[in-house]
Design goal:
4 strands, 2 domains, Arc Repressor Mutant, subunit A, alpha+beta, Alpha-Beta Plaits, four-stranded antiparallel beta sheet, single chain, 5 helices, elongated
Length: 169
């Protein structure tokens, strides 16, 4: 499995400091709450709402971004990108092959989430597909070629009831 850095490395929330937990003060949290509502909010507007200078807000945002505490991105829905089929795939993998399987799956454009897990499955994948033929091709060509796969269970998502990136800070 490739090394990950930043806030989601190793499944823990962390910044560039490595294993040090993220420490945000009340002002940083308020800035993030405003940006969660609208990532396009100007530094001037944030400063006005919080009763601070624009320079202070700009420096705090720059510091948090430099430490990879948050990202500002546009996230299109899968349907906008043409992906009309969503699946959760559980994989049982022979232990010596987990890292190799993770590396291969991480490189696949269809895979949006990949977790190494405990319990029934060793790897849990969320993937998006154009249609059933695309899913079939992924299952037979990609999953079928992975070494160490013992079992695959695919659950199709019929309707997404909640799709959110909001975290309470």
């Amino acid at each position: 499995m490739g090394q990950k850095s930043g806030p989601r490395a190793g499944g823990r929330i962390q910044g560039k400091q490595g294993d040090s937990p993220v420490k945000l003060d009340g002002t940083d949290r308020e800035i993030l709450k405003i940006l969660q509502q609208d990532g396009r909010t100007s530094n001037t507007e944030i400063a006005r709402r919080l009763g601070m200078t624009e320079t202070t807000i700009r420096k705090r945002i720059a510091s948090m971004r430099a430490n990879e505490y948050f990202e500002i991105v546009a996230v299109p829905t899968p349907q906008v990108a043409g992906y009309n089929l969503s699946a959760i795939i559980g994989l049982s993998v022979r232990l010596p092959h987990i890292r190799e399987a993770s590396e291969v799956l991480s490189s696949q454009r269809e895979v949006r989430y990949l977790g190494v897990a405990t319990g029934r499955f060793d790897l849990i994948v969320e993937a998006f597909f154009l249609d059933n033929d695309h899913l079939l091709s992924f299952t037979t060509d990609v999953l079928g070629s992975l070494p160490g796969i013992i079992d695959v269970e695919t659950s199709l998502i019929l309707r997404i009831e909640k799709f959110s990136y909001e975290w309470e800070v």
